[in-house]
Amino acid sequence: MLAVAAAPALGWGHNGHRITALIAEQFLQGDAKTLAQVKAIMGSEALPDSATYPDVHKGALDKGAPYAGSREWHYDDRPVCGPVQKYAPGVKWCPKGACVSGHLNEQIAAMKAGTTPFAKQMGVRFTVHFLGDIHQPLHTANNNDRGGGELPASYQGHELGGSLHLHGYWDDDLVEDAMKAASASEDPAVQESDLATALHKEFAAKYAEWTKGTVEDWIEESHKLARDLAYGAIPGFSCGAPIKEARLSDAYVKQAHARAREQLAKAGARIAFILKREFGK
Fold it and tell me: Does pTM top 0.85 for this prediction?
């Protein structure tokens, strides 16, 4: 299979974002204060719906103040090759601060400091969504191919679901495979819930370890995963050498499935942690 890419990057697809929020809800069980504070801001909007809002309404948000240009806020174009380039204001790969590193902490603050109810709601929505985005490794790295969005991908002659490019493989295909493996149901909503429950159970003991550090630390961790696996483990990948197609091996696919599950769980734990930190005091 040879694919022609690629739609604009979405971070995890809708399934993935909903799963990270469902996992966060499980980590928040019993934290009445945090849940009450979030509900006071969001009303009847469930956390999984908040998680997908920035993608569902991306076009409208992007057109007007104060979120004009916000479609660029979902990712970092940190070069996957060459020296690691950390975020700092003015860094070349984040022009005018238009990247997730430039806006995530701002939106975390807006959850409480927003000057209007809508600004606070968007703070929650962007926080939950962007914390999901940064755990998809191709949202923290770029090889002059829009984070793999312009890199056709194949797996030993088998199509990769509907994605047809490397970024979409990580966004959607890996998540859908994990959903189906975790559930006996054919209903995607049930599959999402079953996978979230399974991942929470599997990784709950990692919560204290995973919630150490800063947002920047978490982004750098994901960027390293892109260097080591998402790009770096593609057979034949080499910095400085053009690659026309990512022909994934059995070893790559096995590693990617395992790490995608872990990244979803990490995102859920860290969403819960940030909400607890901001609202549970």
Answer: yes
